[in-house]
Amino acid sequence: MDQLREPAIFIDKAELTLGSGRSRVHVLRGASLSIPAGEVVGLVGPSGSGKSTLLMVVAGLERVDTGRVVIAGRDYAGMNEDALAAFRGSEIGFVFQAFHLMQTMTALENVAVPLELSGETDAFSRAEAMLARVGLGQRLTHYPAALSGGEQQRVAIARALVTRPAILIADEPTGNLDGDTGREIADLLFETSREHGATLLLVTHDRELAARCDRTVRISAGHIEPEAAAPRQPLRAVAETSA
Ligand SMILES: Nc1ncnc2c1ncn2[C@@H]1O[C@H](COP(=O)(O)OP(=O)(O)OP(=O)(O)O)[C@@H](O)[C@H]1O
Ligand SMILES: [Mg+2]
Fold first, then answer.
1. Contact yes or no for 118/87 (Cβ under 8 A)
2. Which pLDDT score is estimated for 4?
3. Residue having the nearest C-alpha atom to atom 19 of ligand 1
4. Residue range 144-156, pLDDT digits in tens
5. Residue 171 forms beta bridges with which residues?
6. Would you state the pLDDT for residue 238?
7. DSSP 226
8. Best mutation site among 17, 25, 96 for ligand 1 pocket (most ligand atoms within 8 Å of CB)
């Protein structure tokens, strides 16, 4: 297959059972998903339908029992845990609802971590530039506890994108923020992922946010539902024609 036209995220007939004994749950039931590079996709569905689990599968943090997972051209089936961890460190960025920052590290240190882990020598200057990009150039030495929720999420976005990953996954990134702050954070996510050419897969319960994605994918009971309507014009195309 032409390397350039390969989807950024390709999941085919994924089956996954988690837990053991009485808490065993058949979470993913033949989930299939194909997302071209650069697309912004909103993943929606009821609580417990498998949204977070599907993100874990994309990140290689959970392995499927059967089915195929090919992310940025790499088939996870052939990769051991070390290879997956290295791949995740360079190609996948995460943003969570609860920010998940290291409380004992400053904003700058939090953003520098992924670069330091991959042995980059200019980790701090790149982290500083990324924090400036998300509007926190004046908050470099703040600890998370001294930042507002929206600011903490800006740090988390900076940390997720600082390695220039191919894929950005966000699990209810505005879920802990008020409406206005949530909209600002969504704007920032869309803008920065576009600037970095990242494919964005975003879980949300917020209809307004879902409607702003290029496409919405619905999961129910571990299965991706067939698309109901023709896809709308992608955000990117709109941005290009209005530029
Ligand atoms: N480690 C686990 N062991 C057993 N069951 C699990 C495990 N992880 C998740 N589950 C179950 O799998 C189902 C899907 O969980 P998941 O977190 O993916 O749902 P979700 O769609 O993200 O829900 P929400 O919208 O509430 O965040 C749930 O019923 C959950 O209880
Ligand atoms: Mg979830």
1. no
2. 55
3. 48
4. 999 999 999 999 9
5. 96, 203
6. 52
7. P
8. 25
Report the residue among 24, 43, 51, 63 best suited for mutation to probe ligand 1: largest number of ligand atoms under 8 A from its CB.
51
Q: Which residue has the tokens 């992922």?
A: 193
Helix axes 123-133, 149-161, angle to 10 degrees: 130
Burial-class residue 149 by CB neighbours within 10 Å (0-12, 13-18, 19+).
Answer: middle
For the chain, the farthest-separated pair of C-alpha atoms sits apart, in whole angstroms, at 56
Q: Give the position of tokens 């991706």.
A: 224
Q: Are 40 and 190 in contact (CB under 8 A)?
A: yes
Q: Which ligand is nearest to the CA of 28?
A: 1
Whole-number average pLDDT of the chain: 91
Residues 6+ apart with CB under 8 A from 179: none
Judged by DSSP in three states, 93 sits in strand
CA of 62 to the centre of ligand 1 (A): 12
Taking each helix axis from N to C end, the angle separating 179-195 and 235-242, rounded to the nearest 10 degrees, works out to: 80
The closest of 44, 41, 40 to 205, measured between CA atoms, is 44
Q: Is the pTM of this model over 0.85?
A: yes
223-224, strands of its sheet edge to edge: 92-96, 167-171, 199-203, 40-44, 215-220, 223-224
Is pLDDT above 50 for 180?
Answer: yes
CB under 6 Å to ligand 1: residues?
Answer: 18-19, 23, 25, 27, 45, 47-53
Token pair recorded at residue 98: 């609860």
